[in-house]
From TrEMBL:
Metal-binding in keyword set: yes
Keyword tRNA processing: no
Naturally occurring in which organism (per UniProt): Rotaria magnacalcarata
Assigned keywords, A-Z: LIM domain, Metal-binding, Zinc
InterPro entries assigned: Transglut-like_Superfamily_Mod, Znf_LIM
Segments forming domain LIM zinc-binding: 54-120
Region Disordered, annotated ranges: 1-23, 334-354
GO molecular function: metal ion binding
Protein name: LIM zinc-binding domain-containing protein
Length: 541
């Protein structure tokens, strides 16, 4: 344990026998090293160091420096305890609010539940000033009403009153009311239809999850069988070679009549046995690694096929539900059936990326929404995509939200437990734990819940180590990425490289032509805007 002692404490120790240096542990509680103070002084010192100011206001547990938030109104919180008092929504320094009405209230709230001052109420003693208080408001309203004067319509012209008001609003520079409505200001029938689609999605997802659980069970059994097979093969070979080595040792003992060399033969036998054990251990590990890679490739292909089938089922379900809503609302069959259109044939997009958007700042509200969703937990893909696409109307915004969620959520750093239930937040990404689901497979799955057509593409791309004019050999610069339909055109998305990239040295030898093998030390997690909808000539070879 490291002792932290200041210079002043050393001087005080030399001048007084009652003072003593102290060592600090992780809980910041000093432990006396030289002289023990009196019991009353020790209790008062301990109580002062572990006072309520050092404890979380919510759970009353000790707050460590690494997980501390605050002080907020002289109160500390754990990061996970920094939530709204009313709805338990996770907050941060940008989203929390305090009670400005009651200064004695030390709690924190979200924007929806923070106490606000209500409408003023006039008592019977102050009723005489009520008209005086309303005078400025009435004056403003009168000015607004004056702008609409000059038009008088009788009962015979009531049918054109809306058209006349629309012209007035247009002349005054105002937009249509329907154009400035913000989500979720939707009609009740549209909200009910949306909820019906979500319920159907949740039901289909539960059926798909059961089928996926059965597939994971097959994967687990196959891995266990392969592990037993490798263990049995290595054990049989070990016993066979050990038997041969023992027979050779015994034969040497019988042929050598000189008993003085018996310790030498025994020592050589022990060394050869230890060397054999090391070789067999290495051989077993290599077999395990090779079998693991082969099984993982096979499992990824099987999972990809299953997720592709799930995606088609989900998109078909959403389209059928939306078609039923359109038909119920009186939309003609020809227009309604266009909703069930198939994705376009594979071909390069007609427009460039800059034609879709000039600056990533146009997605600021989408990115903030995706980051907020990534900080919370969901138990189903339906719930996750519903939160990601909440209020987003275009395919571009929806694909952007899914892309940013995957790039923000560091899937490789998630610490999965062995006993994961399928309906838990971590169980939602259990495919990442088993290594059967990759970034592009997850992106394709989430796009289907947003009714976006998405596929994965295997080919050669301009990855790290590529130089213009370089000849591409067999198996070099192979990669897998996604293609998603946006505005009737296929667009590329590479979530893996959008979330992280390799860090290379500036000087490269001629012999190092092949791309470097990625390692934990060389991988840097940093968001890259380039890999969201890159143009084909900038991305593929």
């Amino acid at each position: 344990m490291t002792t932290v002692t200041s210079g002043n404490s050393l001087n005080n120790n030399r001048s007084s026998n009652n003072a003593s240096p102290a060592s600090f542990n992780l809980a910041e509680e000093p432990t006396p090293l030289i002289a023990s103070p009196p019991l009353s002084a020790s209790l008062s010192s301990s109580s002062s160091l572990t006072s309520s100011r050092d404890r979380c206001r919510r759970c009353q547990q000790l707050v460590y420096c690494t997980e501390r938030i605050g002080p907020v109104k002289d109160a500390l919180y754990h990061k996970l305890c920094f939530k709204c008092l009313k709805c338990d929504r996770q907050l941060d320094f940008k989203t929390y609010f305090t009670n400005s009405i009651d200064l004695n209230d030390k709690e924190i709230y979200c924007q929806s539940h923070v106490p606000r001052s209500g409408k003023g109420v006039f008592s019977t003693e102050n009723i005489h000033i009520q008209n005086v208080m309303k005078a400025p408001k009435l004056n403003v309203m009168q000015k607004l009403d004056d702008r609409h004067t000059g038009i008088h319509l009788d009962s015979h012209s009531v049918s054109i009153v809306h058209a006349m008001k629309a012209q007035q609003m247009f002349q005054q520079g105002r937009e249509k009311v329907s154009a400035i409505h913000k989500f979720p200001a939707l009609p009740p029938d549209m909200i009910r239809a949306r909820e019906e689609v979500r319920r159907a999605q949740k039901s289909l997802e539960e059926k798909q999850r059961q089928e996926e659980d059965q597939l994971f069970m097959k994967f687990r059994n196959a891995r266990e069988l392969e592990e037993k097979k490798i263990e049995q093969e290595v054990t049989d070979e070990w016993e066979k070679r050990l038997q041969m080595l023992t027979a050779k040792y015994e034969d040497d003992l019988q042929r050598k009549k000189d008993k003085t060399i018996e310790p030498e033969l025994t020592l050589r036998f022990s060394k050869e046995k230890a060397e054999l054990e090391r070789n067999m251990t290495l051989k077993r590990d290599k077999k395990r690694e090779m079998a693991r890679k082969q099984l993982m490739e096979k499992e990824q292909e099987t999972t990809h096929s299953l997720v592709s089938k799930f995606s088609k089922e989900m998109i078909t379900l959403i389209q059928e539900k939306e078609l039923a809503v359109l038909t119920e609302n009186g939309v003609d069959d020809q227009r309604a059936t266009t909703l069930l259109r198939q994705p376009p044939p594979p071909q390069p997009p007609r427009r460039r990326k800059r034609d879709l958007y000039q600056d990533p700042s146009v997605f600021e509200h989408v990115d903030q929404q995706a980051i907020a969703v990534a900080e919370s937990e969901q138990t189903s893909y339906t719930e996750l995509v519903d939160q990601l696409t909440y209020g987003l109307l275009t395919d571009l915004e929806k694909s952007r939200a899914i892309f940013r969620w995957i790039t923000v959520k560091d899937l490789n750093a998630i610490d999965f437990q062995n006993n994961l239930a399928a309906d838990t937040p971590m169980g939602l990404l259990r495919g990442i734990k088993y290594g059967t689901e990759t970034y592009h497979t997850l992106f394709m799955r989430l796009c289907s819940f947003a009714a976006l057509h998405c596929v994965d593409v295997k080919g050669h791309s301009k990855s790290v180590g590529y130089e213009p004019g370089m000849r591409i050999g067999e198996g070099k610069f192979t990669n897998t990425w996604n293609a998603v339909v946006i505005d009737g055109e296929w667009r590329f998305v590479q979530c893996n490289w959008g979330a992280r990239h390799l860090v290379m040295s500036k000087d490269k030898k001629e012999a190092d032509i092949a791309p470097p093998k990625p390692t934990r030390e060389k991988i840097k997690y940093q968001y890259d805007e380039h890999y969201f909808l890159p143009d084909p000539d900038d991305f593929i070879l």
